UniProtKB/TrEMBL annotation:
It catalyses: alpha-D-glucose 1-phosphate + ATP + H(+) = ADP-alpha-D-glucose + diphosphate. It comes from Shinella pollutisoli. This is Glucose-1-phosphate adenylyltransferase. Belongs to the bacterial/plant glucose-1-phosphate adenylyltransferase family. GO terms for molecular function: glucose-1-phosphate adenylyltransferase activity. Pathway: Glycan biosynthesis; glycogen biosynthesis. Residues 16-284 form the Nucleotidyl transferase domain. The gene is glgC. Its EC number is 2.7.7.27.
Length: 420
């Protein structure tokens, strides 16, 4: 039957965000919160990008499956995403594992995280399901992916990045024909298949899937009855459809959202301390690769009611100043100097302190004369007076979590162990 286009497909779709992952490569940043709840960009959390994409694409039914250390994430969702109204055919469901269809408490895999909530999904009667990962930074119009899904007659459409072929070894890689139909799906291959006509590049899965809802429910029920399944989209559901049905690749470049200032399609997995630091610090560039100032595609989040940032003192060596930096509301830069740094809400930086390449999470107190270079400071940390980080690699590695690229992650527990 030909699809009627009298309204956007997104109006008949549900976005289902898989947000249960720990993100262990972020080390202590995910000791108290799931990776999707980690702060990003001065105001937002990582999950806000997938959710904002859904909202800006016109999707008005959203579900978020949570699992690992979910309190911080759930609290953020309740505070920042509570504006959906049932009388407007809108819904926003937070879905922790709750033994709805299983005697085991936890979601066993990404597919099981959807399967356990089949009754809720079917209740809404949506035509399409957009399955999303909740832990990547990007801007994308899912309506364009939905349109390709319908036009191609696919049973599943998979969002894909074009990456240099030998950089795709850590991804699930799509082997496609000339029409982008997937003929094989290879998980983390040593020798990734190239793209027809562009053999130096490969198509890597973004963890974004579009299904007709009825077909997805059939696949999930079939998978749930398979005792050998690991209940995972990438390992079980997708390979089965590739082998037995029609799976089509959707290239991110076809639906990525770019302002006039963004030259390339931007997508980042900020899953390591180095990648997280770099993506945040990149925002301090004169023209960043990611434009968070684009009001036509806003990144929605919990907007706290806070006073403006404040800069005080104007004496030699004691001047509140910030160069090439982002400073959020309720920050007080009291006689300290920032260079190429990003400060979240409520940071206090005291006199004679100097920060360079610093990503400072909310409510941090930086003591006088602290010298901090190339650091990520966790929420609520109290930096002692005179602390120096970024000058002595060996000392830094003994006291803090120092990455291979020389970025130091600082938590309060590490500070408490210092002998100053």
């Amino acid at each position: 039957m030909e699809q009627k286009r009298n309204q956007p497909l997104a109006r008949d779709a549900m976005a289902y965000v898989l947000a249960g992952g720990r993100g262990s490569r972020l080390k202590e940043l995910t000791d108290r919160r799931a990776k999707p709840a980690v702060y990003f960009g001065g105001k937002a959390r990582i999950i806000d990008f997938a959710l904002s994409n859904a909202l800006n694409s016109g999707i008005r039914r959203i579900g978020v499956a949570t699992q690992y250390k979910a309190h911080s994430l759930i609290r953020h969702l309740q505070r920042g995403w509570n504006f959906f109204r049932p009388e407007r055919n809108e819904s926003f469901d937070i879905l922790p594992a709750s033994q709805r269809v299983s005697e085991t408490q936890w979601y066993e895999g990404t597919a099981d995280a959807v399967y356990q909530n089949i009754d809720i999904i079917e209740d809404y009667g949506v035509e399409y399901m957009v399955i999303l990962a909740g832990d990547h930074i990007y801007k994308m119009d899912y309506e364009l992916m939905l349109q390709q899904h319908v036009d191609s007659g696919a049973e599943v459409t998979i969002g894909c990045l074009e990456v240099p072929r030998m950089e795709a070894t850590g991804f699930g890689v799509m082997h496609v024909d000339e029409k982008d139909q997937i003929i094989d799906f290879v998980e983390k291959p040593a020798d990734p298949p190239g793209i027809p006509g562009n053999p130096d590049f490969a198509l890597a899965s973004m963890g974004i899937y579009v299904f007709h809802t009825k077909f997805l429910m059939e696949m999930l029920r079939r998978d749930a009855e398979d005792p050998n399944s690991s209940r995972d989209f990438g390992k079980d559901i997708i390979p089965y459809i590739v082998k037995n049905g029609k799976a089509v690749a959707h290239r991110f470049t076809a639906s990525c959202v770019r302002s006039d200032f963004e030259r390339e399609a931007y997508w980042r997995d900020v899953g390591t301390v180095d990648a997280y630091w770099q993506a945040n610090i990149d925002l301090t560039d004169i023209t960043p690769e990611l434009d968070i100032y684009d009001s036509s595609w806003p990144i929605w989040t919990f907007a706290e009611i806070k006073p403006p940032a404040k800069f005080v003192h104007d004496d030699e060596n004691r001047r509140g100043s910030a160069i090439s930096s982002l400073v959020s509301g309720d920050c007080i830069i009291s006689g300290s100097t920032l260079h190429r740094s990003l400060l979240f809400t409520g940071v206090r930086a005291n006199s004679y302190a100097r920060l360079e390449g610093a990503v400072v999470l909310p409510d941090v107190l930086i003591g006088r004369r602290a010298q901090l270079r190339n650091v990520v400071i966790d929420r609520g940390v109290v930096i002692p007076e005179g602390l120096v980080v970024g000058e002595d690699p060996e000392l830094d590695a003994k006291r803090f979590r120092r990455s291979g690229n020389g970025i130091c992650l600082i938590t309060q527990a590490m500070i408490d162990k210092l002998e100053l």
